[in-house]
Design brief:
Length: 391
């Protein structure tokens, strides 16, 4: 499906694991970003942006892109921002307990010199991540926050309409106390997930091996490949302690903040969603991410249909463009040099959810338009009112 995204000009490879995001690709990404912003607003998370360049002292990880400035100071291109955000909090510490809970997130490029960058947007060396960091005054509040954020991530993924699994995960490099991952199950997934049909345990095999359920020891298990689309960690004071991110408690005493971090792979979700939904020759998008929802295919220039339906294409466009949820989400494909058939096939390959064709039936006294619903594979012939009703 990565191939289709490249062939259809959604993205273009710039160098290994690094992509140009072309106009349609950006539209889909922006939709995902704005859906996430809305969900973050609901849980009182505020957006900020931390720099991509970070002094190298904070870092001891692999997969780093490093660079040196003219004064011979070593920098890295940030692969994630736990250290940077904790450092930011430490630089304004100690805040009062009254300032918490605090939830800060960003949607920025991350850089990792991946050993194997492959599957297009799913494993890039520069990729877009939404990373949220939470700060609470004690573990009880931090745990409460953790479950609230997990719910919010479930809401985001549910809106995309692709089934996902939330599994127990290893804390790995980032560390912390509890960790979960969200996965799309798919053959190309590079993680292995264990599902126990005896006790319903779900976990990444990184913590569990693949032979039996680590919770109930049953061998009634299924192991499937997963694409990790999000990863959450209850960190506790792992970072706040070493970097001095503190606050003043009710008694005026200095205490460490309790943190959580929550990464959502924005560009990976786009690549993975298309991977899971698409057909061999045709892209498919989650309805909420399709670069445009509707495309109108106008008659070919100079054809009998064009002469007889003159102006109808624009009128239809204007009418649909006024409808709630469709404004700015509709395309008029009036490329004169291409036949209707060619443009229709192209629109199908692009996976626009609704394709309206102004064909021969539109020349009749009571003009009928052809509406193709791509996601359900249905075709209707409707007059203008019926068509508008449909949206
Ligand atoms: P993976 O196991 O696939 O290498 P990760 O565990 O290293 O991912 P995290 O550090 O947990 O990734 O980052 C948070 C999220 O960022 C991941 O859940 C994933 O959605 C996304 N992500 C990580 N690496 C990449 C990448 N190379 N390209 C695109 N998205 C990525
Ligand atoms: Mg990784
Ligand atoms: Mg992982
Ligand atoms: Mg991870």
């Amino acid at each position: 499906m990565n191939r289709l995204m490249l062939d259809l000009g959604i993205i273009k490879l710039a160098s290994p694991g690094i992509f140009h995001l072309l106009p349609l690709g950006i539209r889909a990404l922006e939709k995902l970003k704005s859906l996430i912003d809305k969900e973050m607003h609901k849980i009182n998370a505020q957006r900020l942006a931390l720099p991509a360049l970070t002094p190298a002292e904070l870092w001891e990880k692999t997969e780093l892109f490093t660079l040196t400035d003219r004064h011979k100071n070593l920098y890295i291109l940030s692969p994630t921002h736990e250290e940077a955000i904790t450092d930011l909090l430490a630089s304004i510490a100690p805040l009062s307990y009254k300032n918490f809970p605090l939830r800060l997130y960003q949607i920025t490029s991350k850089y990792r010199d991946e050993m194997k960058s492959r599957f297009g947007l799913m494993r890039g060396r520069q990729f877009l991540m939404k990373d949220l960091y939470t700060f609470d005054i004690d573990m009880e509040n931090a745990e409460q926050t953790y479950s609230e954020i997990i719910k919010s991530y479930e809401n985001i993924l549910t809106k995309l309409g692709i089934g996902f699994s939330q599994v127990l995960a290893a804390t790995g490099n980032i560390g912390g106390l509890i960790s979960h991952e969200f996965h799309y199950t798919a053959d190309v997934g590079e993680d292995k997930l264990l599902f126990c049909s005896n006790c319903n345990y779900k976990g990444n095999v990184e913590i569990s091996g693949q032979d039996y359920c680590p919770q109930c020891k049953s061998t009634k298990i299924i192991v499937r490949n997963g694409i990790e689309v999000a990863h959450t960690f209850l960190l506790g004071d792992k970072y706040s302690k070493s970097l001095n991110a503190t606050y003043l408690d009710r008694n005026g005493l200095i205490a460490n903040l309790q943190m959580g971090c929550y990464g959502l792979g924005i560009s990976r979700i786009l690549g993975a969603a298309v991977e899971v939904l698409s057909l061999e020759q045709e892209l498919r998008w989650p309805l909420v991410l399709a670069p445009y929802k509707v495309v109108i295919i106008a008659p070919k220039g100079g054809s009998k249909e064009e002469v007889l339906t003159s102006g109808l294409d624009q009128e239809l466009y204007d009418n649909i463009d006024k409808l709630d949820g469709y404004t700015g989400n509709i395309l008029l494909d009036d490329r004169n040099h291409l036949t209707i058939g060619k443009r229709y096939l192209e629109a199908r390959r692009m996976g626009y959810p609704y394709i309206i064709v102004i064909g021969s039936k539109a020349t009749e006294t009571n003009p009928l338009y052809e509406l193709n619903e791509i996601l359900t594979n249905k075709q209707h012939f409707l007059d203008k009112n019926e068509l508008l009703q449909h949206f």
